[in-house]
Specification:
This protein is mainly beta. The chain contains two helices and seven strands. The longest helix has 8 residues. The two termini are 25 Å apart. This is Endonuclease/exonuclease/phosphatase domain-containing protein.
């Protein structure tokens, strides 16, 4: 991944799923990024959202199960919600009904990740 990003250039926002651990302090991430993540202590799942500082990112939610990371960014006067998700491997409709869907409002929202549907 690092070689690819160095070759094509670093995007404004990166969402990683199934990270299985924390990536904060990972060698090679430019200092112009803030790193937000949700991970569990069981070395399973994990979501990381990397956002360039220019968007003034703010962590709203990172659940303890490593399935969901919610960050807000600003672009001009607009606020954009980014929901990075790594859906449960097992059939668990409650995750979507109780955890993911209530976070989606009428404002600009991007849902990205592995939904495991």
């Amino acid at each position: 991944l690092m070689k690819y990003l160095m070759y094509v250039g670093w995007p404004d926002i990166i969402v990683l799923t199934d990270t299985r651990t924390t990536i904060k302090g990972f060698h090679g991430i430019p200092t112009s990024y803030e790193v937000f993540e949700a991970y569990s202590s069981s070395s399973k799942r994990g979501v990381a959202i990397l956002v360039k500082d220019i968007f003034k990112p703010k962590l709203v939610l990172a659940n303890n199960s490593g399935n969901l990371c919610y960050v807000q960014i600003r672009r001009g006067c607009s606020v954009i919600d980014i929901l990075g998700t790594y859906g449960p491997n097992e059939d668990n409709p409650n995750f979507y009904a109780c955890e993911l869907l209530p976070l989606i409002g009428s404002k600009s929202t991007i849902i990205i990740g592995d939904l495991n549907l």
